[in-house]
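Sample pair:
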Amino acid sequence: MQHTAFVAIAVIVIVGYVIGRQLIGEPIRGKRLVVLPLVLTVVGAINLDQGSQRLKPADIAFIALSAVVAAAIGLAQGATMRLDRRDGGLWGQMPVWSLWLWGALLVSRLLVGVIAGTSGAHVAASTAPILLVLGVNRLAQAAVIAPRAVRAGIPFAPEKDGTTFLGGLAVPRPDGGQGRADAAPSAGTAH
């Protein structure tokens, strides 16, 4: 029971932090955009097999359904994020109405959990899949944001150590040429 409470509190803190930063707007660093969701997804997948209950086929089906819905919402979140160049790097901000997308993610997870619980899929109904589902959601958002930024020629914001994630990658520029992802592009804003 303590593990369940810890996971629930951790997820609430993580989601609250992510929502707050996205609504205020922030520099988008590649490692935070890609690596952090990947870590969440892997930890979430490992967490599924750590409980006392074994995964049943129904658990896998409901967790997959939850992940598909989370991915679809993540794609919408990535498409609606406003992307700009600020201080030479990628900067993003979610519109306030995007809180509806976060609400849809929460409601979908609750509905799948209730249906899974009544169907005997107790792992899928527990808090165990939450990190996995959140990671999938964030990866889907990244799958939209990264290509949008690359197409616009806006490099990721510098990491704390000054490097730029995928900084040496040659990317097509809007003018048809090629350049490095950290080179000055000819496009200023991506919407």
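The chain has one domain: 2-152.
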